[in-house]
């Protein structure tokens, strides 16, 4: 399973055209806040950079192309992108959310938007019957993250789309873990796709950003209005860096996935490890769906390490190539302890129910030598 040939070309050219004035092959950084007008209200398409900027416009065109969407919108972070989507809902709305979701997403929904009379129902969305039973006239949105974070469950986007449409609700898919190279939610029936571009789209651990893609004119108008009115937009330099990063997205994702598969197979055979979570493994409970829905299995691997929490800490400290840090999707390999780090804000009862415990470790597998990464894991497991 690989990136499609068309995506290799798309990532290099989408949204990017040589500069008309200079012929520069790369989109210039339009580092300006405002634009001169020939008379009041008459300008060349831009009046203030919160509303629009030529560098950001190119990025948004690239975002749209990546997901096969009509529109793309750029935000200052993944959570800003999520806020813009939720802010299109009216008070009294209900949102069904997958339970194994990024900790920051759950925190945003539970602690900020719940107090504005929007109800969030967290549940296992791999259980389609349970989701169908939870839908009611107040349900306005289904929020799916697939593969999930950090347990890498795979949720059936087509089935969730059918349920959403039958209820007159919107389906939102967080496609961050798969990236647009390995999964196309809009083609599977999603209404909105979002990304933390901090992760694979940025790919170098040097940018914070978010993206929203959609094809519906009304949805685009509503979310773009929030983008303009709330103002959580990336600057031109961040937009330029993301445009640069997108050019190598296809080739990076293939290396991430190849390394992750090799590591998952190694961990699966190691006596100190149990419960390896990677959709590419044939014994993964959702492998069949992943193979059908995705063109590649991504670069994230989670597993439980046998033994005490002290042993887990020792393992983390003994790694030499993997660095202990939050976030994911960069070219370098990272290791994370979800219970204490990225998912510490998840209510303890839900963490236990999901299996996010002291022994769970999440790897963001980079693009280094797979042999070097496996040798690093070997020495840390032995010590």
Distance between the termini: 35 Å
For the sheet with most strands, the description reads:
7 strands, mixed
- Rounded average pLDDT: 96
Strand count = 12
Helix/strand structural class? alpha/beta
CATH superfamily of the largest domain: Type I PLP-dependent aspartate aminotransferase-like (Major domain)
Rg, Cα atoms, Å: 21 Å
Helix residue percentage = 25-40%
Task: Indicate the topology.
Elements: H1 5-13, H2 54-67, E1 71-75, H3 78-86, E2 94-98, H4 103-112, E3 119-123, H5 128-134, E4 139-145, H6 157-167, E5 170-174, H7 179-182, E6 192-196, E7 210-214, H8 217-230, H9 236-246, H10 249-268, E8 273-277, H11 287-293, E9 300-305, H12 309-318, E10 323-324, E11 334-336, H13 348-354, E12 360-364, H14 370-382
Brief account:
This protein has 383 residues and is of the alpha/beta class. The chain contains 14 helices and 12 strands.
Written overview of the protein:
It is a single chain. This protein has 383 residues and is of the alpha/beta class. The chain has two domains: 5-246, 3-Layer(aba) Sandwich (Aspartate Aminotransferase, domain 2), CATH 3.40.640; 249-382, Aspartate Aminotransferase, domain 1 (Alpha-Beta Complex). The chain is built from 14 helices and twelve strands. The protein has helices spanning 5-13, 54-67, 78-86, 103-112, 128-134, 157-167, 179-182, 217-230, 236-246, 249-268, 287-293, 309-318, 348-354, 370-382, and strands at 71-75, 94-98, 119-123, 139-145, 170-174, 192-196, 210-214, 273-277, 300-305, 323-324, 334-336, 360-364. The protein has a seven-stranded mixed beta sheet, sandwiched between helices. The radius of gyration is 21 Å and the shape is globular.
